[in-house]
TrEMBL record:
It holds the Pfam family TRAF-mep_MATH. Gene3D superfamilies: Apoptosis, Tumor Necrosis Factor Receptor Associated Protein 2, Chain A (2.60.210.10), Zinc/RING finger domain, C3HC4 (zinc finger) (3.30.40.10). This is MATH domain-containing protein. Residues 293-436 form the MATH domain. It comes from Rotaria magnacalcarata. SUPFAM superfamilies: TRAF domain-like. Coiled coil: none annotated.
Length: 446
C-alpha cells in the first residue's frame, strides 16, 4: 500500500506554506488548495484541479452545474492555459521543508523530495494523491482488474487481459454461459408454443430452399463482375505503362527544381539574417548607464496595428553606473482569459551577472520604478514599482548569466496603446522609463 506524507499534498491540489498570500482565484473551488493541472468549467468559469473535476463534478447527462445551477446537455470544461501562466509566475514556499521558488520548480521539488506515494504493482512514485489515484485506476499496466465475465472470478493484470480472454478456462466458461443462454431461449420458445415446432422447422427449410434458388444467379452476376474488373485492370495497366516514362521525366524535373528552390531558400535565409542584424543594430552595442537622475528611457517601436498581435521585446543591457549592477528589461503583451478577455502591457526586469558583483551589496536593495511615458504636454505618466524586498530570490547575486525575471504582469491595459488618440504611442513609438530609487525618495505613483 502507498505511504503518504499528508503535510505535503492533500486531495486534488498542492498544499503550500504561504497559501494566504496567494490570489484566491488560483485555488481550487473543491479542495481549496493550490490548483494542480487546472481546468475551467465553460458554464460559469469555475476553476478546479483536473482530478477534482473528474471526481467531484459528476458527468451526468443532462449536466447541472453544482456551482451556478446551469443545465447543459453535458459537462463542458477545458484546460485553463491562462491560469497555468499565472501559476508559473507566483512564488511558493514548500509546506514540508524550507524550499521556496516558482510553481513549476515546486512540482519538480515535490517529485524529487516528497514523492511519498508508491504504486504497489509497478513501484512508480508520485507526489500527489490525484496523480497516484489516476495511475492506479487508469494508467498502470500492472494493476489487477476483474475479468467481468459472469462465473469468472479471476483478477488479471491489465497487460495480460488479452491472453486471459484466449485462455482455456475463460473460453470454457464463455462456452458454458452461451450454451445456457441458448438453452433457456429454446426452452422458453418451446414452452410458449409446443405444438408449432414442426411447422417452424418446415418454414425455416422453405426459406433455406428459396435462398439456395437465388445462389446460381448471384454466382453468374459475380462472374460477370470479375470479367469486367479484369478488363478494367488490363486497361489501367496499359495506361500505367504509358505514363511511367513521363513520370520519370517529371521526377527529374522536380529534383532539379528542388535544388534550385533550396539555393533560393538559403539565399533568402541569409537575407533575413542580414535584415535582423540591421534591425538589432539600432541598439547600442555597449552597456548603457543611468543618467544623472538615476533614470534610463527606452524607445519601443510598435505600430498600432502590431499591438493587436502578441509581442515580446527585450531592451539592451544597462548598468546603474560604470561600476554598478547590470540589468535588462523585457516588455510584452499578456492576455488573461476569463468571462471577458483582458489584455495588459507587462514589464519584467532581470538582474544580470556583472563584472563588479564581487564588491556590490546583494540582494539588490533598491526599488525599481517603471513608467509608461505620456508624450503629450499633460505628462500623465503611468508609474508602478517593483519592490525588491518582495522578490529576494530574483535579486540575489547571479550564479548564472542572469537571474529569473520579476515584474508587473498587469502594468497597464493594452487599450492605452491601441487607442488611435493615445498619448502614450506616437508615430509608432512608446517609451518605457526605468528609475532606480537609490535615495528611497518613493515618487508618487499615477
Amino acid at each position: 500500500m502507498a505511504t503518504s506524507n499528508e503535510s505535503v499534498v492533500v486531495s486534488g491540489g498542492l498544499r503550500i506554506r504561504n497559501q494566504k498570500t496567494i490570489d484566491i482565484n488560483l485555488l481550487c473551488e473543491l479542495c481549496n488548495l493550490l490548483l494542480l493541472d487546472p481546468i475551467q468549467l465553460l458554464c460559469c468559469g469555475t476553476r478546479l484541479c483536473r482530478w477534482c473535476s473528474i471526481r467531484g463534478v459528476p458527468e451526468n447527462e443532462p449536466f447541472t452545474c453544482s456551482f451556478c445551477n446551469t443545465t447543459q446537455a453535458k459537462k463542458q470544461a477545458h484546460a485553463d492555459r491562462g491560469t497555468v501562466r499565472e501559476l508559473n509566475m507566483i512564488k511558493i514556499e514548500c509546506f514540508s521543508c524550507s524550499w521556496n521558488g516558482l510553481y513549476n520548480d515546486y512540482r519538480i521539488h515535490l517529485e524529487k523530495e516528497h514523492a511519498d506515494f508508491e504504486c504497489i504493482d509497478c513501484h512508480k512514485r508520485f507526489y500527489s494523491t490525484n496523480l497516484y489515484q489516476e495511475h492506479r485506476e487508469e494508467i498502470c499496466e500492472y494493476r489487477c482488474v476483474p475479468c467481468g465475465l459472469p462465473g469468472c472470478t479471476e483478477l488479471i493484470k491489465w497487460f495480460d487481459m488479452g491472453a486471459h480472454f484466449l485462455s482455456m478456462k475463460h473460453q470454457t466458461i464463455l462456452f458454458k454461459l452461451t450454451t445456457d443462454i441458448c438453452t433457456r431461449k429454446k426452452h422458453t420458445s418451446d414452452t410458449a408454443n409446443p405444438f408449432n415446432v414442426d411447422s417452424n422447422i418446415q418454414q425455416e427449410l422453405m426459406a433455406i430452399n428459396e435462398n439456395m434458388d437465388s445462389i446460381p444467379s448471384a454466382v453468374d452476376n459475380s462472374l460477370e463482375d470479375c470479367k469486367r474488373l479484369n478488363s478494367e485492370r488490363d486497361h489501367i495497366q496499359t495506361k500505367n505503362n504509358d505514363i511511367l516514362p513521363q513520370g520519370k521525366e517529371i521526377g527529374k524535373e522536380l529534383q532539379s527544381g528542388n535544388e534550385k528552390f533550396k539555393k533560393c531558400m538559403n539565399g533568402h535565409t541569409e537575407t533575413e539574417k542580414q535584415i535582423d542584424d540591421a534591425k538589432n543594430s539600432r541598439w547600442p552595442t555597449k552597456p548603457l548607464v543611468l543618467d544623472m537622475n538615476d533614470t534610463i528611457t527606452f524607445p519601443i517601436a510598435k505600430q498600432p496595428n502590431d499591438i493587436n498581435t502578441p509581442f515580446s521585446i527585450q531592451t539592451p543591457e544597462f548598468c546603474t553606473s560604470s561600476w554598478g549592477y547590470k540589468l535588462v528589461v523585457r516588455v510584452c503583451s499578456t492576455y488573461i482569459s476569463g468571462e471577458e478577455r483582458q489584455e495588459y502591457l507587462s514589464v519584467y526586469v532581470s538582474l544580470l551577472r556583472g563584472n563588479m558583483d564581487s564588491i556590490l551589496v546583494f540582494p539588490f536593495p533598491y526599488d525599481i520604478y517603471v513608467s509608461l511615458c505620456d508624450q503629450s504636454k499633460q505628462k500623465k505618466d503611468i508609474v508602478s514599482v517593483i519592490k525588491t524586498g518582495d522578490n529576494v530570490s530574483a535579486f540575489n547575486r547571479p550564479s548564472s548569466d542572469r537571474n529569473n525575471e520579476v515584474g508587473i504582469v498587469k502594468f497597464c491595459p493594452l487599450k492605452f496603446l491601441k487607442d488611435p488618440e493615445s498619448n502614450y504611442l506616437k508615430d509608432g513609438v512608446f517609451f518605457i522609463g526605468i528609475f532606480i530609487d537609490f535615495l528611497n525618495m518613493e515618487p508618487k505613483l499615477v
